[in-house]
Write a structure and sequence with these properties.
The protein is α/β, with parallel strands linked by helices. It is built from 13 helices and nine strands. It has a nine-stranded mixed beta sheet, sandwiched between helices.
Length: 361
């Protein structure tokens, strides 16, 4: 087994991670009976425990008349941060059709609870049971809802430090947001797990026969189920029958997502949704964890060279781990390697964040 590869655009961030997050220097040993990437990816939701978490739901209005569902874990029992006004807050963004009930989100809430922090999960429009008020859902390229959520969190907790973690598409959205906003964000730091960096490469990889069978068809049907659930609002604006006949994510995006967000072609949408083009503009410390065997984000498309050009970026690449897998130990019920990266980085950003103030120096 090899140690994970840690790449950063600057010595300062690299050294900070080595000092504050020992997990980046540890060899990651995948669970031996499910080390293969596809098996890791498929089994994780079933073998990892789902910690019990009670959320407080809040619906906030969006500029177009729609609504956004936030799930708060207030952590009022926090012993290390008893003052709610200054309690550190972690914003969590789930994957493509994910919600606050995904096991990987619940695990990050559990880790945050242990640190004494508050969490808020940003559920993309229409996925978590709330009514869709306008014919608009979400995509990786559009960050307007994310911007509204961050502004709302900061307005309601203006003295609390805020950081964010995104998984898969949630990570892509976060990276795109940071690339667009540069220094104009209140986020102290960001960690991104299993993001797809170049959407063309991701969709091509997922269209290979085995991966199309194992993942693409299932995810497409999940996306279609979301459309069907809100058919009465969406059918006025889109050809729902045509959307429901899509066989792949690419076909779904051609018939639905790219049209919804006003792109001339699906290729235009995929270019805009690919965070690789915006990494040079990120001005906030961002750590990215990818597995070299992730079929959703193929190794050759992991943006090693772009990361090397920006002192605010760091990339941690493990040999194994699959897509949001990172299972470890004989029976991986509890925390994964990804959870440990999250916990150590969150603590480092919140408690030692002053060391990250100017990474370009």
């Amino acid at each position: 087994m090899q140690k994970p590869q840690l790449i950063s655009g600057g010595k300062k961030f690299y050294q900070f991670l080595r000092d504050q997050c020992p997990v980046v220097s540890e060899t990651y040993y995948p669970t031996f009976w499910c080390w293969e990437s596809r098996i890791q990816t498929l089994l994780r939701p079933f073998v990892t425990a789902k910690p019990g978490v009670s959320y407080r739901n809040e619906l906030i209005g969006a500029a177009d008349g729609g609504q956004i569902s936030l799930d708060w874990f207030d952590n009022d029992d926090s012993s290390s941060h008893q003052n709610a006004a200054t309690r550190p807050t972690v914003l969590l963004l789930p994957g493509l059709t994910g919600t606050s009930r995904e096991s990987y989100i619940l695990h990050m809430v559990q880790q945050s609870r242990e640190l004494g922090y508050r969490c808020v999960v940003f559920n993309n429009r229409g996925v978590s049971g709330e009514t869709l008020l306008t014919p608009r859902t979400y995509c990786a390229a559009n960050t307007e809802d994310l911007e509204a959520v961050i502004e709302h969190i900061k307005r309601t907790n203006e003295d609390a430090p805020l950081m964010a973690a995104g998984v898969s598409m949630g990570g892509m959205m976060l990276a795109n947001y940071l690339g667009r906003t540069g220094r104009e964000t209140c986020l102290k730091g960001v960690v991104v797990f299993s993001a797809g960096w170049d959407v063309f490469e991701c969709t091509a990889s997922l269209e290979k026969p085995l991966d199309r069978f194992l993942f693409n068809s299932y995810l497409t049907s999940c996306l279609q189920a979301g459309v069907d659930r809100h058919k009465s609002v969406l059918e006025k604006s889109y050809d729902i029958d045509h959307v429901m006949k899509a066989k792949t994510i690419r076909e779904f995006d051609e018939r639905f997502t790219s049209i919804m967000f006003g792109y001339r072609t699906n290729d235009d949408y995929y270019h805009d949704a690919s965070p690789v083009h915006k990494l040079k503009s990120v001005q906030v410390p961002m750590l990215c964890l990818n597995a070299a065997d992730d079929v959703f984000s193929p190794r050759h498309a992991i943006p090693v060279e772009a990361v090397k050009q920006n002192p605010n970026l760091a990339l941690l690449i493990t040999c194994h781990g699959g897509h949001i897998g990172f299972l470890e130990g004989l029976w991986p019920r509890q925390s994964t390697y990804m959870d440990r990266v999250f916990k150590q980085f969150a603590k480092a950003v919140i408690e030692q964040g002053s060391d990250l103030s100017d990474l370009s120096s």
